[in-house]
């Protein structure tokens, strides 16, 4: 499987200067980085759930921006920034900020965390966005980022392509490393066990869709990650026609219950 990831230093076929300036700013922001560390305590240390901290955010943001780049290259239409009269350069900024801040509500509680993420992220955005935008555009970018944060939660329906990307990217962090800490601490819930079965996830340009996602698992338990969690993220994302997902069981165990899944 080939793989593509977002490299800020690489050349891109979309305006990337504003995005890279924002990413550099928030990666050096003490308050944001503290949230990314603190938000992991409730889900992992207290509930023995999968990682929702800085590593999870790094993977989700990378995959969200990779999805954005592949979809942009595939001439998929984006409507979040456009409907607000913002620039194309603001599309990846919305994606990057939402992917970074989507889980900070975990500092309050794992349950219903997207709704706690909204006011916490709003406070951060009120401080960060004026560094890059005038008041009017800052308000519009803020609204789009908060929409994407809310809609990473599957009961909420994304109304923009940018929000659909963040929702799907959140589901694409599923490899075994994400469940290492709860598994070592004795966590044996279906989320932890199924994540242990996922070996790798790769994103690349597709032939019959803008994006091809390939997933390798070595145990049928990984089916839960793909057919339950990831499928729920894809459905209703608005990206169903533009993303093809193929999961293959690479186990050498002989009679595999599940050999291949396509979404």
Please explain how this structure is put together.
By secondary structure, the protein is an alpha+beta fold. It is built from twelve helices and four strands, in the order αααααααααααββαββ. It has helices at about 15-25, 30-40, 40-45, 55-75, 80-85, 90-100, 115-130, 135-150, 160-170, 180-185, 190-195, 225-235, and strands at about 200-205, 210-215, 245-250, 260. The chain has a four-stranded mixed sheet. The two termini are about 15 Å apart.
Mean pLDDT across all amino acids = 89
Low-confidence residue ranges: none
> What order do the helices and strands follow?
HHHHHHHHHHHEEHEE
- Total strands: the figure is 4
Number of helices: 12
Percent range of helical residues: 40-55%
Q: Mind describing the biggest β-sheet?
A: 4 strands, mixed
The strand order across the widest sheet is 1-2-3-4
Distance, first to last CA: 17 Å
Q: Give the oligomeric state of the chains in this entry, treating copies of one chain as homo and distinct chains as hetero.
A: single chain
Radius of gyration: 18 Å
Structural class: alpha+beta
Approximate shape: globular
Strand content: 5-15%
């Amino acid at each position: 499987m080939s793989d593509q990831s977002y490299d800020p230093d690489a050349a891109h076929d979309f305006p990337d200067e504003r995005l890279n300036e924002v990413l550099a700013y928030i990666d050096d922001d003490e308050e944001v980085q503290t949230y990314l560390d603190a938000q992991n305590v409730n889900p992992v240390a207290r509930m023995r759930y999968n990682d929702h901290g800085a590593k999870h955010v790094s993977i989700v943001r990378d995959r969200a921006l990779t999805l954005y780049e592949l979809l942009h290259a595939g001439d998929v239409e984006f409507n979040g920034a456009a409907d607000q009269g913002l620039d194309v350069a603001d599309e990846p900024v919305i994606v990057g900020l939402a992917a970074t801040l989507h889980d900070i509500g975990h500092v309050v509680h794992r349950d219903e965390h997207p709704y706690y993420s909204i006011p916490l992220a709003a406070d951060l955005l009120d401080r960060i966005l004026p560094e890059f935008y005038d008041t009017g555009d800052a308000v519009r970018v803020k609204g789009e980022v908060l929409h994407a944060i809310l809609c990473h939660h599957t009961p909420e329906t994304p109304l923009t392509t940018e929000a659909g990307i963040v929702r799907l990217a959140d589901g694409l962090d599923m490899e075994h490393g994400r469940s290492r800490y709860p598994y070592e601490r004795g966590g044996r819930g279906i989320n932890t066990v199924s994540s242990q079965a996922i070996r790798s996830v790769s994103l690349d340009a597709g032939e019959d869709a803008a994006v091809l996602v390939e997933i390798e698992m070595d145990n049928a338990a990984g089916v839960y990650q793909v057919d339950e969690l990831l499928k729920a993220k894809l459905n209703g994302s608005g990206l169903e026609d533009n993303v093809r997902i193929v999961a293959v069981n690479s186990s050498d165990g002989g009679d595999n219950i599940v050999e291949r899944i396509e979404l």
